Amino acid sequence: MTYVFICIDFDRDYAIPIKNFRHAVSDNKKDESEEIIRDPELAISLNGTVQSFYPLITYLINKQIPTTFYYEARTLTLFKRKHSNLFNMLNQPFFEHGLHGYDHEDLTGEDTGIAFSKTEEFELLKSGKLKIENLLSTEIQGFRAPYMRLSSNTIDILEELGFSYDSSIYKQSETGIFPYRTKKNIVEFPVIKTPKESSMKGMYTYLWPLFEKTRSEEEVVKNYIQILKNSKENDSYISINLHSWHFAYNISKKRYLSEIEIQKNIDSLTNLIDDLKEHGAIISTPILWMEKTNHFSVI
After folding, report:
1. Hey, what CATH topology would domain 2-292 get?
2. Which residues have C-beta within 8 Å of that of residue 99, sequence separation ≥ 6?
């Protein structure tokens, strides 16, 4: 059997790095005054996440879909403060909770020009982990780096802070894959990208192209099912990766979507999940996978 992980990066609306700033800024805030951009809270927009949250979370809860959320600590803090009724819906036994930075930091400094020392990164991830654990009253075991970029210190820091796994590496594959150990206590769960020369034409298993309408729902579903059919080894996995805001905000058009458009995007996700289940996929999470199997790849 092949497992499928539903992974949601729960972050500010389309987080973009800004030169000389450690915190990311929401795309629709980047042209605001410097006073707003400099403030980590004022530079955040949650409109997309909030607009799509109720129909998405209702589906996940009603169907009891195991789901992994990777949270920005500040975004989750603001979400609870401003939308406590919605926040409370995150407390489900079949939801798994992870960290996605504090302010969607560029840990490598590649775009911001500000690299973190090991001590600075340690304190950042420590504070983010503690914040989310306090907000959700749960233990945080998983990490996904903002922009999918790990620094040379990140894995060591994750181990020091007691994380169990990371999911910030892309791996080319046309089939389900296996995680591998990067450190004694840290397991890496890569995110699949199909080869450009494959029939799936270099598709990332983020649903970015689906929500930006550069790939049709039919093509995306077909490609995922093809990966599933190619997967012959038991206990391999595929992840479906998306952002909390992307149901409601179109990047290329730089606009928020209507309720009807948001629902269509959510329907596309539910159709994909239903089709994969019909083809024998088991919906799970990284922690559940590790509890049930010990099948790792060799690197």
Report:
1. TIM Barrel (3.20.20)
2. 70, 71, 73, 125, 128, 129, 132, 140, 142, 143, 144, 163
